[in-house]
# Entry
Amino acid sequence: MKKIVEKSMLGQAWVLPTYSDDNFPGADDLVLKILKARGIENADRFLNPSIKEYMPNPSVLYDMDNAARIIADAVVAGDKIAIYGDYDVDGITSTAVFVKYMCQIGADVIWHLPTREGEGYGLNTVAVQEIADAGAKLLITVDCGISGNEEVDFAKQCGLRVVVTDHHSPDAILPNADAVVNPKRNDDVSGLDYLAGVGVAFLTVVAVNRELKSRDLSADIKKKIDSLNLMNFMDLVALGTICDTMPLVGLNRAFVATGLKVMGLRQNLGLRVLMDVAGIKKPSVYAAGFALGPRLNAAGRLDSAAPALELLLTDNPLIAHSLAEKLHQMNQDRIDIQNAIMLRAIDMADKCCAKGNCSLFLCGDNWHGGVMGIIAGRLKDKYNLPSCVATKSDGIINGSGRSIPGVDLGKIIHDALAAGIISEGGGHAAAAGFSLSAENENAFCDFLENAVREQLHGQMPEREVFVDAEMDAGAATMRLVNKLNALEPFGQGNPEPTLVLSGAMLRYASTMGNGSHLRGTIATSSGTNLSFVGFNLVGTPVGDFLLDDGNINAKIKMLGKLKENEYNGRVSAQFVLEDIAV
# Structure
């Protein structure tokens, strides 16, 4: 690694991998070098992901065959089957995959999604009792259940058989379910621990379908199973995988690449209508993660996730349009709530930073719990500090945290729980959730700050941006855009390439949109012009520099992404600017 810029306009160091000392004679060469730097050995397999190439035998997952037999037994017996999910997009799509499959083969199925505020994450005994009272004989969890030991025991006492499918890290003792399918089990050697909950759910459906096909079924069930194309569920699998920010490698990459193609066929009525409401013409990872996902998530953040699931399940156009519009409005309400809290949080964060804090713990009275995680993530990005945001109500504080590289927030939360400072908590290095008594607010704030300082060895974290390549601005052409697009789908584990363009001369810059964004043009050393846009840069040092007429013709280095831009039928390369250096 080497630093090509020690400190940019936004105070960041730009860091290149060592291979970037080489010259790039062509776009093909650059793509191969990016793959090499990302540890990709088989370029052809990576660039051409297919389900056929990556799909494993579901039996490689521990306890999968047992789970498939139990579920198939319930289907054949005509038992009522309950699917229990989660209120985020991964949980919603996991539930949708299972419910759709069960409905299509004629099984008797019901579902339950817990509410964030009323029930919280995971299984709860009240819901389990309602499921048993409804006459269910089998309970299947998706994207949850691995930590519900007591609730699983309660379900067994209610006479339910229980199959847990999950992807979250298990506790030392697994729940006493009839089957537990989770690639993060210590005894699971499938190597599929990067799957989202919906990925595990889909593989379970594949295993159940295979098990049913091996049985002597009635002509009616056999006909329904034979007519199924499980690949039609790929749009839901892709959506859940993207929105849960799982690494887009291996099977996930094949799921998403295939799923986006299925999404483009617009077969799922609910997704089709939601895409129209969101103005999405072509499915992409960005569209799924930043347009569809937030609208589906909004239901669970503000109230119940049921409307989101109902949208994915419905075959009624009138209901689909009504639900899509409802989710669209809920998302706007979520944005308004989030923005109002964000303004207050920034003011509080500025005061913390003025004291030299290495962490942020911001708590407000009756802040909406559904947006704590989003705000924590925004603050983490803005201040480059581990950030915890919480709401206080009736003497209880509930919060979410997001961390930076080098600080294991999950460990800090685990240690705080062990120390008795918080009453509940869990997570991983980058994200965590927690609850505590209001009387421990100051104690937790001090504990967090001391733990972060210890992990950072007393040094304030440096802002670093990892760059895939530095090149002359004249090389930023549509040919390069097309070659870089071969690396799609982009996402967690396979980020869109970050480029540095050198030899750029500023020709023009102005504000656009609501006044917080930039657009402009640079001249390159090869005599060509390249347009650029920059989002939310007005009011930053970058925006101040570019909008100063005195800096026209200034030589700058530009950091950002190279994308395709279509305007009035004309396609050209456009640079999405994130930072500059002079």
Notes: Confidence is low (pLDDT under 50) at residues 20-26. The domain at 357-455 is CATH 3.10.310.30 (Diaminopimelate Epimerase; Chain A, domain 1).
